[in-house]
Amino acid sequence: MGKKLLILILIFLTSCDEQVDLIVYNADVFTSNDQSTSATAFAVKDGKFIYVGDESVMTKFSSSNIVNAEGLPIYPGFIDSHAHFYGLGFSNAQLDLKGTKSFDEIVEKVIEFDKVNNKKLIVGRGWDQNDWKVKSLPTNKLLNQAFPDKPVILERIDGHAYIVNDFALNLADINYSSKIDGGEFVKLNGKLTGVLVDNSMQLINNIIPEPTQEESIKALLSAQEMAFENGLTTVSEAGISRKQIELIDSLQKSGILKIKIYAMIENGPDVDYYLSQGPYKTDRLNVRSVKVLADGALGSRGASMIDEYSDKKGYYGLMITPADSIKSLAFKLAGTGFQLNTHAIGDNANRVVLNAYRDALFNYRDPRWRVEHAQILKEDDIELFNQKIIPSVQPTHATSDMYWLYDRIGMQRAKHAYAYQDLFEKSKVIAFGTDFPVEDINPIMTFYSATVRKDKDGYPEDGFQMENMINRTDALYAMTIFGAYANFEENEKGSIEVGKDADFIILDNDITKSLETRIPSTKVVATFVNGELVFNRRYN
Fold first, then answer.
1. Would you tell me how many other CB atoms lie within 10 Å of the CB of residue 170?
2. pLDDT value for 36
3. Phi, psi of 193 (to 5 degrees)
4. Is-contact 310 408, C-beta < 8 A?
5. Is beta strand 431-432 parallel, antiparallel or unpaired with respect to 532-536?
6. Which option is the CATH number for 1-71+498-540: 3.40.1360.10, 2.30.40.10, 3.40.630.30, 3.40.50.300?
7. What pLDDT sits at residue 540?
8. Residue 233 in 3-state DSSP?
9. Confidence band for 235, pLDDT divided at 50, 70 and 90
10. Dihedral sign from CA coordinates of 487, 297, 221, 450
């Protein structure tokens, strides 16, 4: 009798559903795994996918948290492989100058901002002279008239130039004779214009007070809210300090900051500290890379070019970090376990970086070093990309820059600009980012720009240099599993597979199949990190 009772108990136990934290069913799941396996349901326990399959999930598992996806598409959480998360949060509290059509309009906005906020120092960001009728860099004459006794610092949209008033110049001890390697103090008619490009901006940065911890926390939480609303679950932070990394770590450990961060250490004294400690990894933070700026930006003519700018004769841009310093840093990092991620926009900067990488990585099998932006390249230099070197690109740069690209560098050089398909074929992996707040944070526009090669208004009608478009499947990989791979995290995220972190998003439109005109209006319905609902428009 006892034996029969034992058998009945065993039958009862084995027929019981396993209790899990979350069940999602009736979905169209894009798994991003190697086999591109389709699925309609999955189960999550302890922050991980423990089952990915079909509707039998409802008989295999039980949960008090069940989501009917109502046939909507589900993707792995989007990974932004190049962004300025910390900077985004602070920009939300600054004067927004995006979309301004003249410098007169900018000054009017600064005056209105000052009336409302009355700050001791005014900081704004987002102007772009390429959007103006008169596309030349401004002078600070109107700023000086409006603000003779208060510093005003207005950052260009790409973060590579300031326009400041004379009060700020005086505070920073900048005069006509000031010089700095890798920077320019723009002059006109024998006077400073107030425009500072690249390394010259450092002198202005010295007069900007350090944010308080409270301000920093507020900025990070503001950026997190925007990221989750846009379906981002991991962000590669392109250049931050040890102090900022440690604040992020503490907020993540306290449960306040839930987003995952791949932190690139900004090139400087903090690099030696981390090299002595080794890579640092938690379930939400990964510190194993160094960010260095080779050159400036194309829009402010700071990108370092082999040939002169088409619209500025005799001018070749700027190397922010000299070639020998880049090579020295590359050899210093090779074999340490730390990845080198170098900003390179101009064809000269890209050539310098690619040659330094080639030499330093000769004896290393899987370094996954990255060229951030890889924007303008000579055709021969594209051949220097390989499976050791990952292009980390921002597709919306192509559709933003195309309006003035030919003016800057001419049509011949532009043939090998934003050459994403060519780069992908060489490296076999490509990682997508936005570079926010330089560009919009929305990864749907990243996808659209890469696959359709048009801006949000559908221009140009036939797409921009369509020979370098990325197909929709590969573009999704570039925002998920390729992004994870570029961060050495492909075994824990980037696809919806058993054993991986349950980071996923629900969209209201299947961007892999929809009409291209519908893609830009696609919205995130819900965002989940480790199975936790962190943003939603529909679910309780």
1. 12
2. 67
3. -90, -15
4. yes
5. unpaired
6. 2.30.40.10
7. 60
8. strand
9. very high
10. negative
